[in-house]
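Q: I have two molecules that I believe assemble together. Could you output structure tokens for the complex as a whole instead of separate predictions?
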Amino acid sequence: MINYFLVFLLFAVGIYGVLVKKNMVKKILGLAIFTYAVNLLWVLVGYKRDGIPPIISKGDLIDKSSLIIKPEVIAGVVDPMPQAIVLTAIVIDLAVLALAVGIALRIYDKTGTFDVTEIKKLKG
Amino acid sequence: MSPQILPLFLAVPLLSAFLFVIYGAIKKDNNGAPADGIFTKTLVILSPLMTVALAVYTFVSTSHLHTNGETSIVYTFGGWRPPLGIVWSLDAFSALLLLVINTLFLMVSIYSLGYIKKFTERHKYYALLNLMAGSMNVMALSGDLFNLFVFLEVASISTYALTAYGLSEDGLEASFKYVLLGSTASSFILIGITIIYAMTGTLNLADASRALADEKIFSSKAVTFAAVLMTAGYALKSGLMPFHSWLPDVHSSAPSPVSAMLSGILIKVAGLYSIARIFFTLAPFSKIEPSILVFLGVLSMLGGVLLALGQWDFKRLLAYHSISQVGYIALGFGLATPLGFIGAIYHLINHAAFKSLLFLNAGSVEYATSTRNLKDMKGLGSKMPVTSWTSLVASMSIAGIPPLNGFWSKLIIIIAAFMSGHYFAGGVATLVSFLTLASFLKVQRYAFWGENNKSEKTTAQSPSPSPKESPLSMTVPMVILALICVGLGVFYPKVRKIFIEPSAAAITNVAGYTDKILGSSK
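A: Yes, here they are, computed for all two components at once.
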């Protein structure tokens, strides 16, 4: 339970960075932190103590002809789905992060500042 | 119809996007900049034309589904049985959305041929546009929560990039704001999906629907938490009122064809369609969702139109009206009565038609006069007849002048609100309709009507050429969209019977949806 609590704490830290910090780079760091928190949550959901990889070899079958897997193997394997999903999510986060950094650099080229309080052409 | 045709809705735009980038990298003109020869121009039209043809074929060949008692066509990836693999399912609502998305994609692509001429790196623009349209097609089809999330992100990332495409200061600022808010919303949605997965052990929407119907999980606080997170995420994506702050900036700063795509379909497919599909399929969500949607809908309707009244920037005004009109759709879904669903879906396609037309009009005006300020326009009606007339049609549609399409859908939503006892919501919807009319009278009065005497006075100081009508590639999509607006309104009984009622029946038929994907439970 404490693990989940810490994940949400990490998420809150990221959100705090996005909401409160005025520097664009710090905002982007906040973005990175809370996407890590979500990925960590996925890993926790799929975590199993002393789990074994969900790959079935011939020794794990009860007998070779019937293709039935031993029950202790089934009880021991981890769920592969969260791991596959975290990989996909990390790739998506990378794309978002790269784009955000690119845009921030372009804004710096145009305005000469990373401070969002000085960039406020759009309002009303 | 064979389900094997469904992946083409993604494959065609994805391949086109790939070809655009490759072609732009290989083929250079004399200055070393990427050239757009006959190949690019053909592909710009060909790719959406193919998806439109596919969408029309799909719609026509599945129109019998509803009457036959069947609900959907299911495509499974890699042949894995539905709860295991990724599944796409096509029902009447998805087919209608595919038709809307791809028609608008075609119009915007044709319009872009003329509009994007003044920008560089055009092949990247077209690649991103194709990516966006393709991923929206997937969102309309997908029956898997994580698949839905991935393509929501693909559509969002291409939108972030397209908003900043002109590299103007406005565009970059809006894009940065949108990246931060959009990614936060996506993370909220992903946490919601995580919780659903942890509770049910499945990502398949139909399977999760069955698992969540179980009494023990149904009353769990974690599911309510997931519902709240996902509501916040999707409400931000659809620009509903407390989460709207990115929308006016992004819609007014993006290039006009992109604004048309964003306002016309992205906020509906990524936002409201996903809300309707996920939340009405998952039983515990559908318990709490209607009242939230009614509240958000009323707030957005009123707030959006009040903020729009004070705007002088043409596109910013339209963006605030998008918030207001999305409120109508949310209210229709929130009523959760059959008539409410019909009104919401009807307003969804109507808004796609008239709001994207208005954004294309605004782009045309900006193209001719290089201003978005309504005070600087005046009397463009005689100079730009096509833009003026089509915008008049669109303005009357959005304001709800009878026989045009906006009138019917608003009328249905208001009647549905009163019939289900939401008197306050119905009253607000009526009031907002009048305020919308006032706001668009202002647009017509300042931009198009009257004599253009102001420019005659100023010609002495600034010898800028007098504005003239946009090129053919920009006027043709506007005329077609105006005809669609008129057609959707004038043929109301037929439209409602053919397009709207099967979709409304499909979204409420949850048992049919899950049975078709997973096989009958008995």
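A: One point stands out. The beta strands of chain B are 73-76, 87-90.
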